[in-house]
């Protein structure tokens, strides 16, 4: 039996300041806040036990907020008890997620808003098919060190005629 393509439900992002992250992602990216920042503690509650299953014993507490993108993808923002921002969050050669991508037809405008909000632009805006198609992209960094990419067009349009 051939598997069918699953839909994407949500992603969890760790940050060092949950309140600032909620402000950034709602005001700069326009995501919806669907559950305000909430503290979860290591205890015998259902959520406490579930988190101990995930993190192991000794996690003590964390704060979490839930957001949603315009296309209904969930985003969990976590601020752990001893949150530390990595010095180099772009170790792309190591396994694991190294970025996520959002789509905006105004790549340059969103990049500028991210920088104004304390993020970084990691490269110049580039065209995928210069002179052929108006597809643009850029790698950015949010104010918390997480890497995000901006595409001007959908993933399907960008790659449907072959890559590069």
From TrEMBL:
Assigned keywords, A-Z: Lyase, Metal-binding
GO molecular function ontology, one term from the record: lyase activity
Keyword Nucleotide-binding tagged: no
Tagged with keyword Transport: no
Domain VOC: 7-153
Domain of life of the source: Bacteria
NCBIfam families per record: glyox_marine
PANTHER family, sorted: BLR8189 PROTEIN, METHYLMALONYL-COA EPIMERASE
Name of the protein described by the UniProt record: Lactoylglutathione lyase family protein
């Amino acid at each position: 039996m051939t598997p069918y393509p699953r839909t994407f439900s949500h992603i969890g992002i760790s940050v060092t300041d949950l309140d600032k992250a909620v402000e950034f992602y709602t005001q700069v990216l326009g995501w919806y806040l669907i559950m305000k920042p909430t503290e979860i503690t290591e205890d015998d509650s259902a959520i406490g036990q579930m988190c101990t299953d995930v993190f192991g014993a000794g996690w003590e507490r964390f704060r979490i907020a839930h957001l949603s993108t315009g296309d209904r993808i969930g985003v969990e923002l976590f601020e752990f008890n001893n949150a530390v921002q990595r010095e180099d969050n772009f170790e792309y050669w190591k396994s694991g997620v190294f970025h996520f991508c959002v789509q905006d037809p105004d790549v340059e405008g969103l990049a500028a808003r991210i920088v104004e909000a304390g993020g970084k632009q990691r490269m110049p805006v580039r065209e995928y098919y210069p002179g052929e198609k108006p597809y643009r992209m850029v790698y950015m960094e949010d104010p918390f060190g997480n890497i995000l990419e901006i595409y001007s067009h959908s993933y399907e349009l960008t790659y449907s005629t072959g890559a590069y």
